Amino acid sequence: MRKKVVARSLVGTMATLMAVSTVYAEEIVHDAQYNILERQHGEKWQAEDIEIDAKLAEIRDNNGGKRPNIVYILVDDLSYGQMGNRKMNHVMGVKTENINQFATEGLALERMYTEPSCTPTRAAMMTGRHPIRSGSSEVKVTLVGEGLSKEEVTIAEVLSEAGYNTSHVGKWHQGDIEESYPHNQGFDYAAFPAHQQVQLSLMTKEAAFANNLFGFEPSIQSNDFVIDDTFRPNGMVTGLEARKGEKAKEVAMPAGHVWSQADYHAMNVRYQAQAIEQLQELSKSEDPFYLQYWPLYPLNFVHDQTPNESLNGGFMAEKLQLLDTWFGEFLQEMDNLGITDNTIVVLMADNGLMYHYGGPSGLSELIYRGGKTDFLEGGIRTDAYVRWPAAIEANSSAGDIIHVSDLFTTLATIGQATDHIPRDRVIDGINQTPLLLNGEFHGRRDYVYVYQGFRLAAVVKDEFKMHMPAPGMPGAAAPVFNVYRDPREENAHIGMALWSGASFQDMIKRHQLTIEKYPHLPLGKGAPYSGIENLRPETEKLVADFMSWH
Amino acid sequence: MRKKVVARSLVGTMATLMAVSTVYAEEIVHDAQYNILERQHGEKWQAEDIEIDAKLAEIRDNNGGKRPNIVYILVDDLSYGQMGNRKMNHVMGVKTENINQFATEGLALERMYTEPSCTPTRAAMMTGRHPIRSGSSEVKVTLVGEGLSKEEVTIAEVLSEAGYNTSHVGKWHQGDIEESYPHNQGFDYAAFPAHQQVQLSLMTKEAAFANNLFGFEPSIQSNDFVIDDTFRPNGMVTGLEARKGEKAKEVAMPAGHVWSQADYHAMNVRYQAQAIEQLQELSKSEDPFYLQYWPLYPLNFVHDQTPNESLNGGFMAEKLQLLDTWFGEFLQEMDNLGITDNTIVVLMADNGLMYHYGGPSGLSELIYRGGKTDFLEGGIRTDAYVRWPAAIEANSSAGDIIHVSDLFTTLATIGQATDHIPRDRVIDGINQTPLLLNGEFHGRRDYVYVYQGFRLAAVVKDEFKMHMPAPGMPGAAAPVFNVYRDPREENAHIGMALWSGASFQDMIKRHQLTIEKYPHLPLGKGAPYSGIENLRPETEKLVADFMSWH
């Protein structure tokens, strides 16, 4: 409600604008770029918000006053087009029939932008903030003694404070220190690996003998020159489980056991079972729930010794098809529990495919160029589908720009939890509830600042995308692409885009000024594996090695 | 029926095989590669054919004994993914809602191969033969005094002899001599341009001032060095109309008139009106009809001076969106006439997009690499949808390989016209009626010989595609791609494909032996514009220039 007061002020005179700054203290703080939009559309949006609030109230009334449950399923490393579309299924020789069906049951968000890698995308969604603001821009693979800061406020905390029950199952990848674990970041229950798939599927004997891994596995080459055993980290923590307020425990990993692809598969099977278990548990309560299921699949680095099912047969393609059947089971369980109608289900991927394993993985560049780690559309555009039968029109789609951080603000709005969003920092996430409920052309974002790690690499506005110019090149001559006409960003029309150079430069200045006013916050720091009560001896040794230079 | 006798024989002993050759005289002659398949599946296919024949008879019984009408709509230069899919619509910023809807009303043929350019694809469909066999491999742009030979037997002739009424409206591009015109190749009625869009949309003042054309238009540069006026052909014939047995007449082109983009648009509008007119006329008869509507759009080379409608705004993208509305009107007229249920409608493109106009046309490479003129999948894979409510399952799709020449044999089979297919030459088209009626995995082709003009450029088998090796490179080391895993054909895995080298070489030998046994036939030759009764003076001059060196 408070926002609307500001919106009205913003369209007033300059004098009013000056006065607004005091009101901002109670407002969610957005990037200056968003305020530019609000200045232009504030009155219309205010009217629409009133209508939306009434709709949401009506839906709650129809559900005995209960707010909707929310399920957020985030799969790992799939580029736009790789799930939810029959035509693309035929291209890839993979069937995702359950996802294809799901994609027609709600709103397909066809221009969803993410960050280019796992940790940043997940941090953006969790905090509603570009990962640069929370220090979460980098992907960490082994021990780092770092993680999402306790100062950050996650969507789980926001919804939890507003009365939601919260669970997290699957990949987390937000750090290896106690404060960063999901059960310390707003989740009542969490089952998650301490790291990610490089450890779980790539650092194995199977991957080495399949020629997908250099030299980590000692039995695949002579190691006569090896003097430093710590360069290859052995003994890392695998799967953890915990409840809020408890210490975490490593599970299914006896001391001395050597991790293998079979363990990775078993972990995936376990998370699928636990996700369904959580669904069953959470749906028993009178209170609504927020369940995150972040599967590790389809990211995978080696064939199992089982017959493949897809026409493609690649080691990631296979897991994509398997994941589709699991997704079908999950949705079926929602039907069985009778919670489908008033549960929002968001399904998307965290970033583009890990194309570095192109051929044998079975998945390659499809429509957009690039993949994970790239600022090209292939790195930061993913399929995204939202179903909420009580409120969202079936078989609809929208080409409006949306960024993964918008889910934070949007879900908080729908969950009547926006009072718990902090006002002392920039929230990049925009409330896109109107897009969800009113459909295409009701989005409130027409831009994205695209970071590649700590570097601002590109800026998106409407159908235009500017790649940051090389050092020394004037901004007016930066390469600009039209993503409708040149989806693969192959032909920059510098001359044709000269008119937009100044506007892009203004956008960057606004963004930088916002950062100056609200400086970035630091990543959390601590001892790796703090807050885990059953470290194995091999893990203790690894931690000791790490701490010896800290 | 005769084929079944052979099929049974083929699975018999060598002695039986030797005896079969005499039966072949009555059989449709296929490439040896197909006979290899028939040897393996003859008995099963024979049983399926009996079942299919019964189905077809039943459908005819349900329609008062009438065979289905056939509408074949072939649009110009669109790559796979560019029509009929909502997700791809969002990528391109173009809406093809009518085509998307149509794509769900029947069978989507998701692995349709064409030839890489207009003339060869259209010749392949017309004759059921690879264009190399009829001399139709080359695309001709201006006067050539050549065209589809009267010795070739087209699908229109085959169906016409079996009692179908036949009409052709739109692009033809099979030559500029009398025998090659559609009304002399089996069509009762024809309205068609003598050439194609290079003349009709590119060789204009508008294209020159839009920077899409070099130097043809005299007013855009000084021509002080020009000595030879014939290098720029002026006075070419534009739109023609005729009925079987009549001379052709040029229409809507007064002597002295200078052709412009407005004329091109008017021609497109006229063909749309004439296609609907033909639909109305043809549906009055007791006999079934075969109607070809081959729009010139979306191929286009310049913006009209009218506001664009699509988010994309490119000069081809715009016409794609326009074409979609026209297609909707055409289908609506079918509904109005009550002929939808028992009419087969095939909608597809003739080859990949003309990506040479990438940016400003609005259409660029999408999924597959390459476009028109290329042997890459981007040149020879197109969207293809078949609707026949009486017989084909709605909302189905098939990843089976099919080649555009298969339509010849398939439509002849459904039209009970196979007796009129000549037995003295190779027919590459395979009867794919089982695929249409029984769906995915019932296709009878697992290979395609890919020609680029007169050159065998690639061979497709299952998910594999071999690019012909460079001269001097052994066949075993030819680059082989897996099109599911590497749809853009970017990473040849020569080492991994070594096993297939010999098999691909066998395929090429079989194909060459078939050619030796049944040599290619020559293209028709004659005077350009023969059989046109109202040549303009400027055209007479052009013909005189041409004949002066013939």
Mind explaining what this structure looks like?
Two copies of one chain form a homodimer. With 550 residues, chain A is an alpha/beta fold. The first copy, chain A, has three domains: 2-58, no CATH class; 66-450 and 520-547, Alkaline Phosphatase, subunit A; 462-517. Helices cover 35% and strands 14% of the residues of chain A. Chain A contains 18 helices and 19 strands. A ten-stranded mixed beta sheet of chain A has the order 8-7-6-5-9-1-10-12-2-13, with helices on both faces. A four-stranded antiparallel beta sheet of chain A has the order 15-16-17-18, covered by helices on one side. A three-stranded mixed beta sheet of chain A has the order 11-3-14.
CATH class of the largest domain in chain A: Alpha Beta
User: Which stretches of chain A are low in confidence, meaning pLDDT under 50 for 5 or more residues running?
Assistant: 1-25
CATH homology-level superfamily of the largest domain in chain A: Alkaline Phosphatase, subunit A
> Within the CATH hierarchy, at the fold level, what is the topology of the largest domain in chain A?
Alkaline Phosphatase, subunit A
As a percent range, the share of strand residues of chain A is 5-15%
Gap between N and C termini of chain A: 48 Å
Largest interface: A-B, 42 and 42 residues
What is the general shape of chain A? globular
Number of strands of chain A: 19
Oligomer: homodimer
Mean pLDDT of chain A: 93
Keywords (chains A, B): Calcium, Hydrolase, Metal-binding, Signal
Protein name (chains A, B): Sulfatase-like hydrolase/transferase
Domain Sulfatase N-terminal (chains A, B): 68-413
Family (chains A, B): Belongs to the sulfatase family.
